[in-house]
Amino acid sequence: MASLRVPYKTVDDVEIPTDIYLPEHAGPKPAPILIMIHGGAFMLGHAGINNKDQIQECLERGWIVLAIEHRLCPGVNLFEGPMTDVRDALSWAQNGGLVKALKANGKDVAVDAERVMVMGTSSGGHLALSTAWNSDNAPLAILDFYGAKCFADPFWTKPMPDMPKHFYDPLSEADVKAVYGEKAVFIGGLSLEGQAPDPNHANPKQRQGFAMHQIATGKVINTIWPSYPSHLERIDPILNVNENWPPTAIVHGTADTTIPMRLSKEFEEKLRGKGVRTAFFEVEGEPHTFVGKMIKGSETWKSQKRGFDWLEERLKESYS
């Protein structure tokens, strides 16, 4: 499954890229676009950790997939870094940037820039949701896999139990300073899904240790949003739900303790209260990291696939 890697923006002379996956067979209509955002607590991961079977599933539906990179916290805060990057990637896809990049690389593909969908897992789920209010032109639909949300909930400042003991140990000042010093890094360490780090990153273990310490000690939200608990309206999806919010589906494992399913249920209730087209797909018995570990064809695969079927339905409706 080949991809084309091109920049969608430049920050401080650093190109922020996306991997473009193209469907093998053109359909009768220009191809819609799905922006796919990896997880990693806003501090870890990279585009290469997105589930390849999910990407292939989208290609078989005739969609173009943009597996985007975004800058990682804490060298930049959540709003100014990841949220801004995802918004800019959406605008790039909608406003001709993708078309120009494909032509420049000799790819003759008809692109439907009016039909851009967004999905993500974990922190990527949050970033997908953020395009609903953080963009000039919201996506056609959003698919959120167990995304971070409801940041005023006490859960976000409680230590995470049952993690390896060394993640609770204090970090060295040198390591902390080094991670904060990475202002435009977009590749970092293992993801929470268990995939391997990208070998091109200078010191993945340093960033990995930093991020896991924040997770273990309940400091993620304070780290990615230093003004916490102030100005949560800038970053929290539940505080921004309105009547114009695009159709949104949520997929969440019932055994998730990293981001409890009840937070997604609370968010679903808020969406429905505003009259937003909404669907919720529970994945029975699965923990937070199931997307990275699921096997195609399994019951888990079939369960989560309903989210992509739901996106397909929103696409069909958009043509009528």
UniProtKB/TrEMBL annotation:
List UniProt keywords, sorted A-Z.
Hydrolase
Q: What's the superkingdom here?
A: Eukaryota
Kindly list the residue ranges recorded as spanning the membrane: none
List the InterPro entries hit by this protein, alphabetically: AB_hydrolase_fold, BD-FAE-like_dom, GDXG_lipolytic_enzyme
Name the SUPFAM superfamilies on file: alpha/beta-Hydrolases (SSF53474)
GO terms assigned for molecular function: hydrolase activity
Q: Which residues form the BD-FAE-like domain?
A: 19-137, 221-271
Give the range the annotation lists for the signal sequence. Answer: none
Please give the name of this protein. BD-FAE-like domain-containing protein
Look up and give the organism this protein is from: Didymella heteroderae
